[in-house]
């Protein structure tokens, strides 16, 4: 059973990210499952640190972007609620120097006041590079 409270459409998600840090780093949302959201990010000059390795901050931006969008998609359409970041952490397990990294967000907890998401980031060869946890606060938001 799908967890989404809003109609999830990849074209719309990618369109809303235009003109943001998500677009600047080349992040593309690629898949919506019953209980997950997935995106990929290139490992290139936009996401390198000076040693030409994937920058840990870029991995965190990928994780928070996927988890934040997923958290907002869970909320019911017209609820007047929005999910905003409260805390994010990441453990960097391995480095990457080329290709793409793929992040997958899955909910660990969906509550009325908070949500907790786990985001696993893998290389395009399927090697786990980073695991992140994102806590979201659910607020009243007139623009939702």
Which properties best describe this structure?
alpha+beta; Thiol Ester Dehydrase, Chain A; 144 residues; 6 strands; 6-stranded antiparallel beta sheet
Describe this structure in words.
By secondary structure, this protein is an alpha+beta fold. It has a single domain (10-140), classed as Thiol Ester Dehydrase, Chain A, CATH 3.10.129.10. Helices cover 21% and strands 40% of the residues. The protein is built from 3 helices and 6 strands, in the order ααββαββββ. The chain has a 6-stranded antiparallel beta sheet with strand order 1-2-4-5-6-3. Strand 1 and strand 2 (36-42) form a beta hairpin. The longest helix is centred in the middle third of the chain and has 19 residues, at 56-74. It is globular and about 45 Å long. The mean pLDDT is 96.
Briefly summarize what is shown:
With 144 residues, this protein is an alpha+beta fold. Helix content is 21%, strand content 40%. The mean pLDDT is 96.
What percentage of the residues does DSSP assign to strands (E)? Answer: 35-45%
- Please write the string of helix (H) and strand (E) elements: HHEEHEEEE
Major sheet strand order: 1-2-4-5-6-3
CATH class: Alpha Beta
Low-confidence stretches: none
Shape: globular
Write the CATH architecture name: Roll
Rg, Å, rounded: 15 Å
Major sheet: size, sense and barrel closure? 6 strands, antiparallel
Average pLDDT level: 96
**CATH fold naming:** Thiol Ester Dehydrase, Chain A
Structural class label: alpha+beta
DSSP strand count: 6
- Estimate nothing, just give the exact number of structural domains: 1
CATH superfamily: Hotdog Thioesterase
The percentage helix is 10-25%
How many DSSP helices? 3
Terminal Cα span: 24 Å
